[in-house]
C-alpha cells in the first residue's frame, strides 16, 4: 500500500509542479488517493482528498457531472463507514439525483448508488442495536 500511495502522490505532485496548478485531469489522482487512504483506514485523509476532488470537479465540470457524482458517492461510502449516517445519506441522495438525470434510473452506475442507499437504510433500521468499532466500522 505504501508503494501505491507513493506512486499516486508522485503523479499528482508532478502534474501540479509541471502545470503550476492542479489540472482537472489530475483530479482522478486526488480521488484515487481518497480511495487508497480509505482502504488504509486513514479516514481523515480520505475525506480531505474526496472533498478536494469534489470541489475541483465542481469547478472544472460542474456539480452534476458524472465524475463529480462518482466522488460524491465515494464520500457517502466513507461517511457510512465512519457512522456518519446523515452525511452519508445526503451524499448518496445527491449522487443518485444527478445520476438519474445524467444516465437514467436503470444505468449500472445509478444502480450502484441505489444499492448503497438501500444498504444505508438497512443499517439505519438497525441503528440502536449496532455499535461502532474502534476503526469506525459497524458490527
UniProtKB/TrEMBL annotation:
Organism superkingdom: Eukaryota
Keywords: TPR repeat
Coiled-coil residue windows: none
TPR repeats: from-to residues: 69-102
One Pfam short name: TPR_12
InterPro entries, sorted: NLR-like, TPR-like_helical_dom_sf, TPR_rpt
Protein's name in the database: Beta transducin-like protein het-e4s
Organism whose genome encodes this protein: Lasallia pustulata
Biological classification of the source: Eukaryota, Fungi, Dikarya, Ascomycota, Pezizomycotina
Amino acid at each position: 500500500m505504501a508503494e501505491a500511495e507513493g506512486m499516486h502522490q508522485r503523479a499528482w505532485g508532478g502534474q501540479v509542479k509541471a502545470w503550476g496548478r492542479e489540472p482537472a485531469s489530475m483530479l482522478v489522482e486526488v480521488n484515487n488517493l481518497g480511495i487508497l487512504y480509505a482502504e488504509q483506514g486513514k479516514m481523515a485523509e480520505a475525506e480531505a482528498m474526496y472533498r478536494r476532488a469534489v470541489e475541483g470537479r465542481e469547478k472544472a465540470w460542474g456539480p452534476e457531472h458524472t465524475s463529480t457524482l462518482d466522488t460524491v458517492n465515494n464520500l457517502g461510502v466513507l461517511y457510512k463507514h465512519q457512522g456518519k449516517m446523515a452525511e452519508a445519506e445526503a451524499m448518496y441522495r445527491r449522487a443518485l439525483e444527478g445520476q438519474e438525470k445524467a444516465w437514467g434510473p436503470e444505468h449500472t452506475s445509478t444502480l450502484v448508488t441505489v444499492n448503497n442507499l438501500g444498504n444505508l437504510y438497512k443499517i439505519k433500521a438497525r441503528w440502536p442495536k449496532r455499535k461502532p468499532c474502534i476503526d469506525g466500522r459497524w458490527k
